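Q: Hi! First time doing this. I have a protein sequence and I read that you can turn it into a structure. Is that right? Here it is:
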Amino acid sequence: MTFQPRTRRAVRCLSALTLAGVLGLSGAAPYITLQPVSAYADPQSELDAAKAKLAEIGAEYQALQTELQQAGAQLEETASQIADTQTELESAQALLSENVSSDYKKGSVSLIDILLSSQDFTDLISRVFYVSKVNDAQTNAIESVKELQVQLQQQQTEQQQVLSDTQAKVDAQAENQARAAAVVDSLSAEVQAQIEAEAQEDENLAAGMQSAQDASNGASQVPVTGNQSTSNNGGSTSDNNNQGNNNQSTNNQGGNQNQNQPSGGGQNTTPAPAPEPEPEPEPPATGGGTATVSTPVGYALQMAGQPYVSGGESLAEGGFDCSGLVYYAYQKIGITLPRTSGGQYTYFRNNAGRFTTSVSQLQYGDVVFFPGHVAFYVGNGQVFGATRPGQVAGYGNIGWYGTFLGGGQL
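A: Yes, that's right. Below is the predicted 3D structure, encoded as structure tokens:
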């Protein structure tokens, strides 16, 4: 019984502390301050759970990047096929038009005219043979136009399917980036720093962090579009008059895109072409050389941050694809290259003042080639270019793009 007063005092003290805590929580008195609580129970658990999630996201992200790299190459291939077929079609149409125009000016030659005007039997045979050859040439020209029109339509259909498939991959990339960004944003600065350090030795973890970082550039929110001009003059052909009268024009322009537009949406109405900025010297972030406005790599570097646009070769088209950026950069110094990466590879192999197949011998500003991809070498194992759909023009590791085919400068 002698400890009863102390026990009662202890109870009263505990009650007072409890009341004070309640008052503190209600705002009556600031006795207790609540600290933000992480979603994870402790720092180590937070770190382990975040690493596992980011590594999973990163593995998926790397697979998507490979698929998008291949999609970009396929888009360029179909665009090249469309351009080649378009050139052939225009040549065939011109030949057909020339033949028809010539016949119109000379007047039709009937069989009775040939019989009456022939000097003798030998002359008659020669005249019939000549008219037969002329008719065969016109018939062949008509058939060539028809076949090329069908081929062009098939290629355009294939291009649209590739664009649709690529858009689905870019949408998946955007979702991946959003998940990665949500994980990173939920972490404390200390845990983020720890993960960044460990990402140096973990490829999947590094890719997860890269996905979170890429979420902020907005490239995956730009709809994937083609930008090949395929004006088809001479749609239908009539055998009765040997003339293609129906002029079709298919102009699939992927103009300037609004980066705030949701991914997977349609195209905006193409605005007036954006003026070309006057480039200024910009040293590369990776070192290894000096960029000046007089070099192709210097002009290319000015396009950092521009969206990937299939068939794009200028700011007026809203962005660039990989070979389009190289084409643009060399045009700025007065050199017109082939338009595709494959054509550029062949051109450089045959015309470069220096061309090497060894990465160790590359020099700053070299144009470097990979299967379905082309970029500029900027030193320290880094390249700069329009990388893939859903990404902006920027830097990358030379090992990211597959087998190195070679590189050099004109």
